Amino acid sequence: MAESNEDEMEQTPQLLHLVFGGELEDIDGIRFADLKGLDIVGVYPNYATAYDAWKSRAQATVDNARMRFFIVHLHRLLDPETESAPAEGGT
Questions:
Q1: Which residues pair with 43 in a beta bridge?
Q2: Is the Cβ–Cβ distance between 33 and 23 less than 8 Å?
Q3: What is the DSSP letter of 84?
Q4: How many other β-carbons are positioned within 10 Å of the β-carbon of residue 15?
Q5: What is the gyration radius of the CA atoms in the chain, in angstroms?
Q6: Domains and their CATH numbers in the chain
Q7: Which residues are registered as beta bridge partners of 71?
Q8: Mean pLDDT of all residues in the chain?
Q9: Which pLDDT score is estimated for 91?
Q10: Which DSSP category does 15 fall into?
Q11: Side-by-side strand order, sheet with 39-44
Q12: What gap in Å lies between CA 61 and CA 33, rounded to an integer?
């Protein structure tokens, strides 16, 4: 059965997403206070797993109002001609 799951993953397009964040200089902007201190949470194969990682990391830092985490749609950067999967919505 594990082989079946591997075959499905090979046939499913990878919609890579990067989750990262850090402390912002100002809560109203998107300029990081320290680029060397960015937290690269990871790269994920789809939006759902990236969202779970984002949510977990964002909740862990909720006490710091200047800390923000983001999801970057790497698949859009790698292949800008390809439309997003319908399940991703407008994020």
A1: 18
A2: yes
A3: P
A4: 22
A5: 16
A6: 13-88 (3.30.70.2400)
A7: 19
A8: 85
A9: 39
A10: -
A11: 39-44, 17-23, 67-73
A12: 16
Confidence band for 80, pLDDT divided at 50, 70 and 90: confident
Which H or E element spans position 71? strand 67-73
37-71 residue pLDDT tens:
999 999 999 999 999 999 999 999 999 999 999 99
Report CA-CA distances (Å) from 73 to 1, 60, 86: 31, 22, 14
Q: Where are the alpha helices (DSSP H) in the chain?
A: 2-11, 47-60, 74-78
Strands 39-44 vs 17-23: parallel, antiparallel or unpaired: antiparallel
Q: What is the pTM of this model?
A: 0.75
Residue pair 19/70 in contact by the 8 Å Cβ criterion: yes
The token duo for 69 is 């985490």
